[in-house]
Amino acid sequence: MAWVLKMDEVIESGLVHEFDASLSGIGQELGAGAYSMSDVLALPIFKQEDSSLPQENETKHPPFQYVMCAATSPAVKLYDETLTYLNQGQSYEIRMLDNRKAGDIPEINGKLVKSIIRVVFHDRRLQYTEHQQLEGWKWNRPGDRLLDLDIPMSVGVIDIKTNPSQLNAVEFLWDPTKCTSAFIQVHCISTEFTPRKHGGEKGVPFRIQVDTFKQTENGEYTDHLHSASCQIKVFKPKGADRKQKTDREKMEKRTAHEKEKYQPSYDTTVLTECSPWPDTPTTFVNNSPTPAPTFTSAQHNTYSVPDSNSSSPNHQGDGTSQGSGEQLHPSATIQETQQWLLKHRFSTYTRLFSNFSGADLLKLTREDLVQICGPADGIRLYNALKSRSVRPRLTIYVCQEPLRSMQLERQDAGNGESSNGAIYVYHAIYLEEMAASEVTRKLALAFNIPLHQINQVYRQGPTGIHILVSDQMVQNFQDESCFLFTTIKAENGEGFHIILK
């Protein structure tokens, strides 16, 4: 095939006809028909065909371009995605540029489009547990948002909206024909989502993604036009500047040959095209019903955030221990499995396990669940599936002393006469926390007493004095202690006190 590479020389030397004849001879010898000069020139290995490829690519350009005014890291290898360092809470400009050619998408001429800017996880594993991760962040930093729009500095943005249940997204309308800049502030830092927090951890990368939509006939902005994103890491204030300086100094120490393997640092970050973000909030883009209604903010607060009263997997709201009905059976249907997950405070994963039956879920190993749900919830789900109960820290036995000595007659084994001895029935109270509030709550559950009617719990001391039951007193209770208790009305007539004897 060396003759193909010499084709330009053949053409320049004026030997085209002679070379064409030689090709015909070769074709006849091979029995495959003769090749003419025009046939050879039509093959895609020639420059005439290659020159047409850029012309085709030029017609396939994105309608918009988003440029973030932050420098890229110089310590990124060639052909790898750019990485940009941001400071927590600092405002960064994202320029919204109209990249259309004349005649492209004419239906949006003179109209507004809607863009949604999000900060999302770059790591695929964290994307699967995004709801859980964000709820945990919300619990640790109440009232804060992961992403905000700096409205005073932004230009050309209209009808800015933020959803309280979507802390990592902002939306706005803008006119592609006018100068538009959105200034964003990222309030979460990359190390907040690392599994170990002992100092010096490598922070997880995030992504800044912009999704743009046009208006449909019904007035909703649901018709997707363009999406682009970039990779970022967020540091504490001024941390991004120090990291950028460190990377630059490291690159200066490398040899010229090593530097060729790395891409240069650019003053701005151009967001590259990507697919639209799948979990688009219904209030932002889509007015169709959400497939899994369990992902509302209220239910996140109820199920995802652990508290002192629900620290064990087998904790039940009615105070009863986990019975056989609480265990997930292999024969459980998909719907029953979903109900079991909700009841045991795993609502974050109902969508992830939406097609799992009881048998499917029980087949997952501990390592599988840790990989899917993360270490904390993975172990908790594994223990719940295996019905591993948490041993109480303290057990006490309590009996309510009747106002009248209610005696249960029992036959005397010796002479058959009835005995006047009273039988007191005790209830076992299992304390998972050594706290006075835990004693009050468990007493209310065990004896069906409205919790709000219990004002104080006292312990009867020497000479009949009443000692307030405090956390310190509970911590000094002996395991398996027995108590009788009575109730007395409060001084103000509202509720009553409990006295342990």
Present the secondary structure layout.
Blueprint lengths: L1 H4 L1 H6 L3 H15 L6 H5 L5 H4 L1 H7 L5 E5 L14 E5 L3 E8 L14 E9 L2 H5 L1 H11 L6 E3 L7 E7 L2 E9 L5 E7 L19 E10 L5 E15 L3 H15 L2 H4 L9 E2 L1 E2 L23 H7 L30 H10 L14 H5 L3 H8 L1 H11 L8 E7 L26 E5 L4 H11 L7 E7 L5 E3 L2 H5 L5 E9 L6 E5 L1
Parallel strand pairs: 2-10, 13-17, 15-18
Antiparallel strand pairs: 1-3, 1-11, 3-8, 4-7, 4-9, 5-8, 6-7, 9-10, 10-12, 13-14, 15-16, 17-18
Helix pairs in contact: 14-15
Structure description:
The chain has helices at 2-5, 7-12, 16-30, 37-41, 47-50, 52-58, 124-128, 130-140, 239-253, 256-259, 297-303, 334-343, 358-362, 366-373, 375-385, 436-446, 471-475; strands at residues 64-68, 83-87, 91-98, 113-121, 147-149, 157-163, 166-174, 180-186, 206-215, 221-235, 269-270, 272-273, 394-400, 427-431, 454-460, 466-468, 481-489, 496-500. With 501 residues, it is an alpha+beta fold. Strands 2, 4, 6, 7, 9, 10 and 12 form a seven-stranded mixed sheet that branches. A six-stranded mixed sheet has the order 14-13-17-18-15-16, covered by helices on one side. A five-stranded antiparallel sheet has the order 5-8-3-1-11, with no helix packed on it. The radius of gyration is 36 Å and the shape is elongated. It starts with a helix and ends with a strand.
Unreliable sequence segments: 1-59, 280-325, 404-419
What is the typical, i.e. mean, pLDDT? 75
Q: How would the global form be characterised? A: elongated
Radius of gyration: 36 Å
**Share in β-strands:** 15-25%
